[in-house]
Design goal:
The structure holds two protein chains of two kinds.
Chain A: H1 5-25, H2 36-47, E1 53-59, H3 65-81, E2 85-90, H4 95-107, E3 119-124, H5 129-137, H6 139-142, E4 170-174, H7 180-188, E5 195-199, H8 204-207, E6 221-222, H9 223-233, H10 239-273
Chain B: H1 2-21, H2 29-65, H3 74-84, H4 96-126, H5 136-155, H6 167-207
Helix pairs in contact in B: 1-2, 1-6, 3-4, 5-6
The chains are: A alpha/beta, B mainly alpha.
């Protein structure tokens, strides 16, 4: 029986849909090995002293939140575990809402953390690289108030924070431009502040070369897998871990499809030669 | 009322998700409708967002608050207006000035940054003693890094015909490039599957309540 190309495609989509849906309904619980890139990120946060102020920049919107939101939640939680104070910023307009959602989720585990004392959401600023450069000179000038309209000078955790150099580490969760590269180019290369972060899987290979001897990036979380690795490091069975079963099954299925496609192509080529 | 709006929002999101997925079967009116709604909504959202989150706080509010103190803001405001002159054929030429300023500024800011981050720092990161690593795998990794970097760049060296002995590093470079393309493809698959997981999770959890 010969199937048309359109029919074959429909079968592939249907099988893939079922293969992804089933592990979501019936989780398997497969574990993943933690990569060195994830370990570097973990060590940076782990080794930063208590009470230091850090920045988590939400440079994405809902279209990529499946991959990046678990990273944000895990990193904020890790910072809270280490009693570090978290500033949320956004180079993407909808990053502000992403930050609020991430804080809400983590606060359900740490209800004693308070806005203005342990964390603050400074909101969105247009300008990308130029904005980061301005933050290097004065954070207050760029963010005169937080997203609740509290003046910068009235926020207790920002009393000794004047410019980027006062920040212990910066994490950019990025799904495009402006994002992690802009933070690296200005905050790390210009002001020598350690920059780490996460990105969508699709852009990860482009950023891995920056995790090098020069420490242009302190590790990198690439895609859902890295998010689940980070969750396992902080001991949280989070949203990324539960989705990794579906991801693994889908990958296996795609490998099978690639094998079938190659066998089919080989047989048709052989048939033509005969 | 809030609960009703939430439920309505979830049902609308489910309808649009399924409409977009229906394109996988074949092009149909539901897909077209969802696509047009998405384009229209995005344009409207950005227009409102730009006015209220960028123009109002950064320009109008500051000028109303202290006009002479913020008079310098009139320069970008005028440049912005000149950009809009594009819409009329007779005044179109005026938009060239803000465009040229924008291109010049961006090139000036980016040139130094990219030179430092993408060339100087990257080259410095390759200038390592490969045998200084702690483990055998570390040494192998360092050697691969150096060989891959040199042969990869050599592949793009076109000033001498790549034949005979000159062909060898080029061939090795191609292998490194192929491996990197393979890794990129793998990550692309992972990203696309993640998006599918995200949508299915929404349908199964928020809409159908099959999973918790």
């Amino acid at each position: 029986m010969t199937l048309s190309a359109v029919m074959e495609r429909r079968i592939i989509y249907t099988v893939l849909l079922i293969a992804v849906a089933l592990p979501l309904i019936f989780p398997i619980g497969w574990t993943t090995e933690v990569s060195e890139y994830t370990n570097i990120v973990y060590r940076l946060i782990e080794e930063t002293p208590e009470d230091k102020v850090v920045i988590v920049s939400f440079d994405y919107d809902p279209s990529t939140m499946t991959e990046l939101q678990p990273m944000a939640e895990a990193m904020i939680e890790h910072a809270f575990i280490k009693n570090q104070k978290v500033i949320a910023t956004a180079l993407w307009p909808m990053g502000v809402q992403m930050a609020e959602q991430a804080f809400d989720k983590v606060l359900s585990y740490y209800p004693d953390k308070q806005r203005g004392i342990d964390y603050v959401n400074l909101g969105y600023k247009v300008g990308g690289m130029v904005t980061i450069q301005a933050m290097g000179r004065s954070l207050k000038e760029v963010y005169p108030s937080d997203n609740q309209n509290t003046a910068f000078e009235d926020i207790p955790m920002l009393q000794n924070i004047h410019r980027l150099k006062d920040i212990a580490w910066i994490s950019s969760l990025s799904s495009g431009v402006p994002g992690i590269k802009e933070w690296m180019m200005v905050a790390r290369d210009n002001y020598q502040v350690p920059v780490t972060g996460g990105c969508t899987a699709i852009s990860a290979p482009g950023f891995f070369p920056y995790v090098n001897e020069q420490r242009q990036l302190y590790g990198l979380l690439g895609g859902l897998k890295a998010a689940s690795e980070y969750e396992s490091l902080i001991g949280r069975l989070g949203p990324a871990t539960t989705k990794m079963d579906a991801q693994s099954i889908a990958h296996l299925l795609i490998l099978v499809f690639i094998a079938i496609g190659n066998i089919k192509a080989y047989r048709s080529r052989k048939g033509r030669q005969q | 009322m809030i609960h009703v709006m939430q439920v309505l929002g979830i049902w609308l999101a489910a309808f649009f998700t399924l409409s977009i997925f229906s394109f996988l079967y074949k092009d149909n009116p539901f897909y077209k409708f969802s696509e047009q709604v998405f384009v229209g909504l995005s344009a409207a959202y950005w227009l409102v967002y730009i006015i209220y989150s960028i123009m109002v706080p950064n320009l109008f509010a500051k000028l109303i608050d202290d006009f002479f103190g913020n008079i310098v803001l009139l320069i970008p405001a005028i440049l912005g207006l000149m950009m809009l002159m594009r819409l009329h054929p007779k005044t179109q030429w005026l938009s060239r000035y803000p465009i040229s300023i924008m291109i010049g500024t961006t090139a000036g800011i980016s040139m130094l940054r990219y030179m430092k981050s993408d060339i100087l720092e990257q080259v410095t990161a390759t200038m390592i003693n490969p045998f200084a690593a702690d483990s055998t795998s570390g040494i192998a990794g360092n050697l691969l890094l150096i060989i891959g970097r040199i042969t990869g760049v050599y592949f793009f060296y076109f000033s001498k015909k790549q034949e005979g002995i000159y062909k060898v590093p080029s061939k090795i470079g191609i292998w490194f490039l192929m491996v990197s393309f393979g890794a990129t493809f793998g990550y692309t698959v992972m990203a696309r599957i993640s998006l599918l997981i995200g949508r299915l999770e929404f349908l199964l959890m928020d809409w159908l309540h099959i999973i918790k």
